[in-house]
Amino acid sequence: MPEQVEVRLPDDVRLHVEARGPADAEVTVVLLHGWTLDGRSWHRQVAALRETYPSVRVVTYDARGHGRSSCMALPTATLAQLGDDLAAVLDTVSSGGGRVVLVGHSMGGMTIMEYAHRHPEHFARRTAGLLFVSTTAEGHTHTVYGLSPRIARIIRLAETTGAGVLARCGSWRPPRALLRALQPSIRWMLFGERCDPADIRLVTSAVARASLRSIGGFRASIGAQHRLETLAALAHLPAAALVGDRDRLTPPPCAESIAEALPATDLVVCPGAGHMLMMERAEEVNGALSGVLRRVLDTSPVRDC
């Protein structure tokens, strides 16, 4: 069973954190979920890491306003705040000074970039490797939902307008009955050619646990972020980036620009896959993570066999 930790932040937001593996581990892997999801989205990666690297500590947590973490004031529904939150989580769950491999999906990847931008010394002291899954450093620059640019602009206008309304709805959660009715739309938006029904149920369950404030409130910050210059300063770190060629939210140009900013990054494009690579292509994500982690462990005095 995971060790459950509550991280209380300066603004009284409480983050639900789960940790597995030795507290004094030389290396800790921290997995950051995407917008409207929660830490459960990484369950396949957690299982693979615990089996293959038992001496590595594995941490997942629910971002503010998501999952089992508490809601927050609307002005703090920003990527900048999520970057600050990540620094606080690391100080709590990996306080022994061991090195950290950061893994981010979608908003989670953007959170890592914001942490690097806002806390460069803290980041440099702790971070040993990076894995970016279906994410971007350029906001909605490349997001056209797999449609024509004209239709994409209409959808984005409707989406941002709706997000502003939801952001003012506070800590309420979406009705589960409505989300079940929207499952075909969720499947179209987030998944590619293949989709396990259990994955749709998990995603729907996660969205049902996200506050309307977080669903709407983070949208503006996500759309506006630009952190390619921040990434360019991290080129010395072992890194990998994965994207599905059917990803409607962060299409391949998003991962390509990350790989261009980080020339040593291993870039993997998964044919037929959508936005939820850790579910749709768990083996590819696990393999890329293992590759980064092995490079980190190879420079460590304590290694897994």
TrEMBL record:
The record places domain AB hydrolase-1 at 29-286
- A Gene Ontology molecular function term of the record: peroxidase activity
Which key words are in the record?
Hydrolase, Oxidoreductase, Peroxidase
Q: Which InterPro entries match?
A: AB_hydrolase, AB_hydrolase_1, AB_hydrolase_fold, Epox_hydrolase-like
Is Oxidoreductase one of the keywords? yes
Its recorded name reads: Alpha/beta hydrolase
